[in-house]
Amino acid sequence: MAQGQGRLNSSTKSPKGNLSDGNRKLDAFSKRQTLAQHRKSLPIASVDKRLVEEVQKHDTLIIVGETGSGKTTQLPQFLYNAGFCGDGKLIGITQPRRVAAVTVAKRVAEECGVNLGEKVGYSIRFEDMTSSSTRIKYMTDGLLLREALLDPHLSRYSVIIVDEAHERTVHTDVLLGLLKSVQDARSKSLNNLQNTKNKKTNNDIQLKENGAQGLNFLKQYQGRTPLKLIIMSASLDARIFSEYFSGARAVHIQGRQFPVDIFYTLHVENDYLDASLATIFQIHLEEGPGDILVFLTGQEEIESVERLVKERLKQLPENSKKLVAVSIFSSLPSEQQMRVFAPAPPGFRKVILATNIAETSVTISGIKYVIDPGLVKARYYDPNKGLESLVVVPISKAQALQRSGRAGREGPGKCFRLYQEDQFGKFEDSTKPEIKRCNLSNIILQLKALGVDDISGFDFIEKPTRSAIVKSLEQLFLLGALTDDCKLSNPVGRQMACLPLDPIYSKALILASEFNCLEEMLITVAMLSVESIFYSPRDKKEESRTTKKSFASPEGDHLTLVNVYRASNEFLEKRSGLSKEKREKAFRKWCKENFIDSRSLRHARDIHSQIRRNVEQMGLRVASCGDDVLQFCRCLAASFFLNAALKQPEGSYRALANGEIVSIHPSSVFFKNKPECLIFNELVETNRKYIRNTTKIDYLWLTELAPQFYAVQN
Ligand code: CDP
Ligand code: MG
């Protein structure tokens, strides 16, 4: 299988210009053949007919299968071929992660021999790759929720597959509840229609008399089909889904798994990046052929290990240099995402640096070694304090098992766990569903917009805690999204629900149009939506700090980000005469020189143009505050008043909303020169609680601009 893929991808790389037409056809032909062979070899291939029958028989079906057995890429194709897209209906497949939606759609388009966006497409926030001819549509779970706002019965879909349901993202959980009621509503309306039809056909005369009407009726009838719902999951526990869907049928797909040797460390590893790096090179220099998969916690960590690998390689003798590092994480630009699937050049070993996206959502061939530091970055929300933070926490036993399993897909493998065996024993059995540990204001706003007013009464697969619901409702109320009786406010609440952003950012944009600084706020929100704009390599800390200072604004990090964005604008505008490639190359060079993460900045630029379009459509006025930066800072205070903090005598800060003691993150412009009062955007917990992205404000602005909170709190 791996070899087949190898041939496929190296042929894609061959210089097309040198190929004759005949050769090119042959090339495409052999590519199709290799793909067809690969498809046939997947565990799911032998049960295709049975699966289709199961879907035909049951309106709700749960499919559980080993990762890599072909669920995500194959099932939609089986259903398409079995005629589930009659009447122009769509098969929708949701994924918790953007990268999975994109890479799988690309793969399936290739397998079907069509261009992406034709029969097979994807749609994720800020990126739509579908057309009127799309029938198999991959998307994020969050995006389908948004679609429901416009089309409450999801009438364009004949089948919806909720994939990776075991991940239990908050979007998946809410989607399951919504789909349950949509399925119900569609069956009911179909039954009603059926009853009327029966009555009418019994009355022959009437039907003849109403010839035209009868025809209309028939059309209407054909347009409505029951919604087929398929829940797919990699973990073995289908019970919870089955129970939730009133005892729905569950089928298991037998996978293949080779033995994997597990190794633990003897000591506790304090720096898991260093430990990962050491293990990569230990495997590379001492073990037989096979690719390495390393699980890291985020883009920043991945990029720093990527740089370290490259540096270390330079020091190795020539014959040990054959190692290539590739990375995959959610905000990787889509044109770079497919690189992880391409095999390394002959004789080279590939090391894949991934977030936990590679745990179950994305399967990469050729992996024989897995390095598992046992950590994951997750959002945690403390409803008592109203604080959400990004924390690196230990994974669960189930996750550790999934990770090691990645090494044994194509043959026996090895997994290096960078923790001790008794640490493993202390891991939770499974991961807590996100809905139990996240801020719910986003999802509550969407449910309200969908007409679900009684949030506690919503049929959640697992109910969030009452205190989390209450706190989030309170937050939405303070942001002006809800009225006194907890209904969506007009226009603010409705406008906020329309924007594909966290409520607090949506509110900032709406306020900014009143404060005449929407131009600056659009840039700020876009820049805050990506992981990290600046980076500082370990060996160039001083240099990167000095460079960063050239962008720094005395007002704070938000305007610093605006400065970076505008500098990149200026740079690109000056080179508007260049070809796209040359411009892009120059852009990357400029970013590198300035210690800016070019991928993040590119992503932020894309997000910017999307949300700019969104606010323009809403009729908000995009203007700049020009030199009046105070106006912008006041707008930040009015928007992020829930995240205000006051300096303490010893130099730390006290968050005003909850009394939490926090420190300024070293990346902030205020790390050394601390203002009395500031607002912040993010709380990151490592060895201490850090606040990131801060701007200096005047304490008195809070009572003036957010009296709904500070007048009461005094
Ligand atoms: O969903 P499930 O984990 O069951 O498997 P899948 O994602 O459908 O993957 C089936 C096969 O397709 C695996 O062997 C993957 O390596 C391959 N695949 C690929 O080569 N490139 C992709 N972009 C996606 C899948
Ligand atoms: Mg899958």
TrEMBL record:
<dbReference type="GO" id="GO:0005730">
    <property type="term" value="C:nucleolus"/>
</dbReference>
<dbReference type="Pfam" id="PF21010">
    <property type="entry name" value="HA2_C"/>
</dbReference>
<protein>
    <recommendedName>
        <fullName>RNA helicase</fullName>
        <ecNumber>3.6.4.13</ecNumber>
    </recommendedName>
</protein>
<keyword id="KW-0175">Coiled coil</keyword>
<dbReference type="GO" id="GO:0016787">
    <property type="term" value="F:hydrolase activity"/>
</dbReference>
<dbReference type="InterPro" id="IPR014001">
    <property type="entry name" value="Helicase_ATP-bd"/>
</dbReference>
<dbReference type="InterPro" id="IPR011545">
    <property type="entry name" value="DEAD/DEAH_box_helicase_dom"/>
</dbReference>
<dbReference type="InterPro" id="IPR002464">
    <property type="entry name" value="DNA/RNA_helicase_DEAH_CS"/>
</dbReference>
<feature type="domain" description="Helicase ATP-binding">
    <location>
        <begin position="52"/>
        <end position="254"/>
    </location>
</feature>
<dbReference type="GO" id="GO:0003724">
    <property type="term" value="F:RNA helicase activity"/>
</dbReference>
<dbReference type="InterPro" id="IPR007502">
    <property type="entry name" value="Helicase-assoc_dom"/>
</dbReference>
<keyword id="KW-0347">Helicase</keyword>
<feature type="domain" description="Helicase C-terminal">
    <location>
        <begin position="279"/>
        <end position="451"/>
    </location>
</feature>
<dbReference type="GO" id="GO:0005524">
    <property type="term" value="F:ATP binding"/>
</dbReference>
<keyword id="KW-0747">Spliceosome</keyword>
<dbReference type="Pfam" id="PF07717">
    <property type="entry name" value="OB_NTP_bind"/>
</dbReference>
<dbReference type="InterPro" id="IPR001650">
    <property type="entry name" value="Helicase_C-like"/>
</dbReference>
<keyword id="KW-0067">ATP-binding</keyword>
<feature type="coiled-coil region">
    <location>
        <begin position="179"/>
        <end position="210"/>
    </location>
</feature>
<dbReference type="Pfam" id="PF04408">
    <property type="entry name" value="WHD_HA2"/>
</dbReference>
<keyword id="KW-0547">Nucleotide-binding</keyword>
<keyword id="KW-0508">mRNA splicing</keyword>
<dbReference type="Pfam" id="PF00270">
    <property type="entry name" value="DEAD"/>
</dbReference>
<dbReference type="Pfam" id="PF00271">
    <property type="entry name" value="Helicase_C"/>
</dbReference>
<dbReference type="GO" id="GO:0008380">
    <property type="term" value="P:RNA splicing"/>
</dbReference>
<dbReference type="GO" id="GO:0006397">
    <property type="term" value="P:mRNA processing"/>
</dbReference>
<dbReference type="InterPro" id="IPR048333">
    <property type="entry name" value="HA2_WH"/>
</dbReference>
<feature type="compositionally biased region" description="Polar residues">
    <location>
        <begin position="1"/>
        <end position="21"/>
    </location>
</feature>
<feature type="region of interest" description="Disordered">
    <location>
        <begin position="1"/>
        <end position="24"/>
    </location>
</feature>
<dbReference type="GO" id="GO:0003676">
    <property type="term" value="F:nucleic acid binding"/>
</dbReference>
<keyword id="KW-0378">Hydrolase</keyword>
<dbReference type="InterPro" id="IPR003593">
    <property type="entry name" value="AAA+_ATPase"/>
</dbReference>
<keyword id="KW-0507">mRNA processing</keyword>
<dbReference type="GO" id="GO:0005681">
    <property type="term" value="C:spliceosomal complex"/>
</dbReference>
<dbReference type="InterPro" id="IPR027417">
    <property type="entry name" value="P-loop_NTPase"/>
</dbReference>
<comment type="similarity">
    <text>Belongs to the DEAD box helicase family. DEAH subfamily.</text>
</comment>
<dbReference type="InterPro" id="IPR011709">
    <property type="entry name" value="DEAD-box_helicase_OB_fold"/>
</dbReference>
